[in-house]
Amino acid sequence: MVSARVRWVAIGLVLAATIIVPFLLFGDALEAAVVQWLETGPSMAAIVAVVVVVLASDVLLPVPSSIVATAAGALLGFGLGTAANTVGLMLGAGVGYGIGAAGRGAAERVVGAAELRSAQALFERRGDIVVATLRPIPVLAELSVVFAGVTAMPRGKFALYTGLANLGIGAAYAGLGAWAVEADSMLVAVAASLALPGVAMLIGRQLSRADGPAA
């Protein structure tokens, strides 16, 4: 008989595949389309709208969100770039939560009601740490908000911690982009933006260890 843990892993792998596979297949084409659009000299309002929509679609589309958020700072400046990044990331987190909530019944059928209740209890204890620390990490960021929806993490708590994390992430990437324009070092900023998820993963691991084993 297949254990509940194996079923959870299977669900996670399926969700990860839906995020990774489109990126591998269409990521380069999407990036080329964005570059071509930028060459047309769009207005600031159009850039804000695109940044928000692209980041909000991160769960569904093959979006290099760290590069998009860094470019927002370079094109819009720190303040407006931070605002656009934060709004887009918040909408994306909400989309992921909604997908998870819509799939709660299917998850219960796969893992069983008791196991789903156990996962809900885990997210009740540590969901704030999970969604906050995984926000900068590609794939895991999307998976965490989907699982928050699956496990019915309270919406207020979810909005608070993802909001704080998204504001920090949006500001960090926008700051890198704005600094790159000033220093004429966009390549360095992009490299730093790609390194940030790894730093976030290390911080999250240390927080998890400090929190100790679940009761």
Number of strands: 0
Provide the number of structural domains. Answer: 1
The parts where pLDDT drops under 50 for at least 5 residues are none
- What summary fits the major beta sheet? none
Q: How do the SSEs run, as a string of H and E? A: HHHHHHHHH
Estimated share of beta-strand residues: under 5%
Task: Tell me, briefly, the overall form.
Answer: elongated
Average pLDDT confidence is 76
Give the proportion of residues in helices.
over 70%
Head-to-tail CA distance between termini: 27 Å
Helix segment tally? 9
Q: Using only CA atoms, what is the Rg?
A: 18 Å
Describe the fold and architecture.
This protein starts with a helix and ends with a helix. It has one domain. Helix 4 runs antiparallel to helix 8 and helix 5 packs across helix 6. It is an all-alpha fold.
Question: What can be said about this structure in brief?
Answer:
The protein is mostly helical and 215 residues long. It has helices spanning 4-38, 44-56, 65-76, 78-102, 104-111, 113-134, 140-150, 155-183, 186-211.
